[in-house]
Structure formats: C-alpha cells, structure tokens
Amino acid sequence: MQTPLQISVRSVEDSAAARALVRKCVDKLEVFYDRITSCRVMIEVPQRFPAGTPIAYNVRVDIRVPREEIVIKRQAHPELHTAIQEAFDAAGRRLQDYVRRARGDVKRSPPMSRGIVTQLFPFEGYGFLQTDDGRDVYFHRHSVLDEAFERLEVGSVVRFVEEAGDKGAQASTVALAGMSH
Question: 3-class DSSP state for residue 56?
C-alpha cells in the first residue's frame, strides 16, 4: 500500500486484537490485488443496550485502487470479530470483481435482437417469432422470461437471444418488449 493503513474506532473500546485482525484481513486483500493504494477502516457501535453493552458493531472499509474506490458498509453484527471478518469478506469479493473488470474477464451478455411472435401454440408450449430480417425462430415456453408465455399473443413484440438448435435457429431467452402490433 502506498499510504499506511488507517484504523478508526468510534464509541467502542480500542483493542489490540481487533487491530491485529484488521491488519491480517488487509494483508489478505493485498494477496488478491497488490496495487491497493490506501485502506481506511472504521469500527463503531451506533447503539448500546441500557446496561452499556453494544447492541452491534458496524465496520466500514474504504479501499482505494487505481481509478476506483471500493466502499463496504456492512450490516451490524453483535460480535466484533465476526463483523470485521464479514466486512473484509465482502471487500475481498468486491476487490476480485474489480480485478476481473480491470483484466477484461467479465462475462458479457449476448446482444438481444427484436422480433414479432408469428405463431403460438399455447397448449404445446412453443411458438415462432420472426426476426427483423424475416427469418423464423423457434422458442419454447421455458425460454420466455418472467413467466410471460401466457401473456404472449400473435403480434407481440419481443427481444430475444438467438442460438443454433438441433433443427435450426431457436431463441434461448425471450422477453416481452412492448405492446402487441
């Protein structure tokens, strides 16, 4: 890290064990990605029971990496060490996502085409749609998103993802795009 780790505590007793756990978790994050520029951790107790014992601990982790800041605001947890570990587990997942995006390893969704339902066989559970370039594409009720197969009718405008099937083109994903023609 380019700047030293900053650990702040608010409304909670500062403990060496908690600081050591935070340092261990930050070291683990640097294994995921060695170009972390800074890390700030805030441990706080926003509410206490009337007897003075903490209801729960909140842990916030701010990590700076090139061109981005990763902020983790975790839900409160009654155990301090568990709250720290859960916050850093989430930070690790977000840091891994950042690394995948930076490398270009992110899976891209296939583009959806536009079509119009031309034939529908509701009892058999399938139909055909026509693409903008005039081709017929088969689709099955299970490929229609949001259980919208029953709402489809001939003339319905849909968006779909086309793939090669055993007997020709078929739609693997079909979504209702708008009102009927």
Answer: coil
Question: Is residue 114 classed as helix, strand or coil in its secondary structure?
Answer: strand
Dig out the tokens for 62 from the structure. Answer: 């701010």
> How much is the pTM?
0.58
| CATH number of the domain that residue 25 is part of | 3.30.160.100
Give me the helix-helix angle, 80-103 and 16-32, nearest 10°.
20
Query: Can you give the residue range of the structural domain that contains 120?
Result: 113-180
pLDDT for position 126: 95
The alpha carbon of residue 98 and the mean position of all alpha carbons in its chain are separated, in whole angstroms, by: 12
Distance of alpha carbon 27 from alpha carbon 22, whole angstroms: 9
Q: Report the 10 Å Cβ neighbour count for 143.
A: 18
Taking the C-alpha atoms of residue 36 and residue 124, their distance in angstroms, rounded to an integer, is 56
Looking at residue 45, the DSSP 8-state letter turns out to be -
Which stretches of the chain drop beneath a pLDDT of 70? 75, 106-107, 178-181
pLDDT value at residue 107: 67
Using the structure block, give the residue that is written with the tokens 């919208």.
148
pLDDT at residue 178, rounded to an integer: 61
The closest of 143, 158, 159, 145 to 110, measured between CA atoms, is 159
Query: Is 1 inside any structural domain?
Result: no
Residue 123's alpha-carbon distances to 8, 87, 114, in angstroms, are 64, 50, 25
CB 148 within 8 A of CB 176: yes
